[in-house]
Amino acid sequence: MNLVYNSEHFTVVAYPAWQGFELVDKENGRMLFLHGAEASCFRAAIDGIPEATRDVETIDAFLDDYCAGTAQPIVLH
């Protein structure tokens, strides 16, 4: 498990052994786990953000769009 990104609104954790990423939306209490081909597409999309525009606002907006409609609520038992 490797912390890839952490901001006030999002955390991204990589799981190399599972070839996956966990996206946690702290503000909206939701998460999304991507693995296999989905994880590869996510990585390619992140790598496609030009270095000059990679700031917290841009990455958070990207992650918000990426999680929209697919992320599941985080439920504590």
Low-confidence spans: pLDDT under 50, at least 5 residues? none
What is the H/E order? Answer: EEEEHHE
Structure summary, number of beta strands: 5
How large is the share of residues in beta strands?
25-35%
Name the features.
single chain; 77 residues; globular
Topology, element by element:
Layout: E1 2-6, E2 10-15, E3 20-25, E4 30-35, H1 37-47, H2 56-67, E5 72-73
Antiparallel strand pairs: 1-2, 2-3, 3-4, 4-5
Structure write-up:
With 77 residues, the protein is an alpha+beta fold. The chain is globular and about 40 Å long. The protein contains 2 helices and 5 strands; from the N terminus they run E-E-E-E-H-H-E. A 5-stranded antiparallel sheet has the order 1-2-3-4-5, with helices on one face. The chain has one domain (2-73). The model has no long low-confidence stretch (mean pLDDT 91). The protein starts with a strand and ends with a strand.
Briefly, what is this?
With 77 residues, the protein is of the alpha+beta class.
